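Trans-aconitate methyltransferase
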Amino acid sequence: MSQQWSADTYAENAAYVPAFGADVLALLDPKPGEDILDLGCGDGVLSEKIAAAGARVIGVDASADMVAAARRRGVDARVADGHALDFSHAFDAVFSNAALHWMRDPDRVLVGVHRALRRGGRFVGEMGGQGNVAAVRAAITAALAEEGIDAAALDPWYFPSAEEYRCKLEAAGFVVDTIVLFARPTPLPTGIEGWLDTFAGPFLNAVPVAQALRLRARIAVLASSTLNAAGDTWQADYVRLRFRARSQ
Ligand code: BEZ
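Tokens:
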């Protein structure tokens, strides 16, 4: 089963995601009058900030619930699959925060982003990079293996290295100005279980509810020595890949 998004659950468990978006927004540097596509806009918190800079923003997201939340903020948001963007030379920039790692076919995504941009337009984004949530993933894999489930077959995430993503950007027709991979340990306000409820649907929704609850508790036990060593503050081992590229 695929990831199901709830704007309310997201706001409760993961408000830090857009809050961490300030640096990538600064890298985008939106200007008044620009047309900007927010790819994977979620509930539109960052789309709203781009619009506040004077740009015209369209947000797209695969989740109807997130798109509805973005529209409630006044964002022109639409439901769309990032693998099948159908814009043609319509934007000065495409922006994406914490969404590209959910798109398992990056080459198709990049074809659509490149086509959406005007010549010389920029693609600015941040996503999970190589090693992202490695300890969480290891705990998920181990807990599911204990119950005979192969987590790799359910894994929805794509976390490339800087070298891999640079190659993909260049192959899609971009010149890369900057691309960096960096660790960003991230406190989890509602602990690992809140994080799993928000982000681990593809693993936990694949089994009956009682089993999912058991697995969720077991993942927390397995991850606690690494991610909750002090016993009172969960911290996820996030690794980000941030880039700015220009379309040729
Ligand atoms: C991330 O933002 O890096 C992320 C979020 C949910 C699942 C995996 C990674």
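The two ends are 38 Å apart (CA to CA).
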